[in-house]
Design a protein that fits this description.
Largest sheet: none
Distance between the termini: 88 Å
Number of helices: 4
Number of strands: 0
Order of helices and strands: HHHH
Radius of gyration: 24 Å
Helix content: 40-55%
Shape: rod-shaped
Length: 100
Amino acid sequence: MTTGAVSATTALGASTPASSSSKSSNQVSESEFLQLLVAQMEYQNPLQPTTNTQFVTQLAEMQTLTELEGIKSDLDKLVANSGGSSGSSVGSSVSSGTQK
């Protein structure tokens, strides 16, 4: 008996969430990733199951990606809040509030 590959549409259903329409085709949300992981576990070959290490690796990669997206978001906010004012201070003299 042979088993075929499970497509993402079979594992997730025929419809896609409305929120994913604004994302590019290569971006997957955390919930979509977990759905795919569960589908992978459900439809894996019972004679050659995926090892625990492979599942943990996939979860760690998703967590790392989530954290990196958070860092990028924070940096984008920091850059937006600075408004480029740090560049105008280059080459200027700075004095402290206390004088001796």
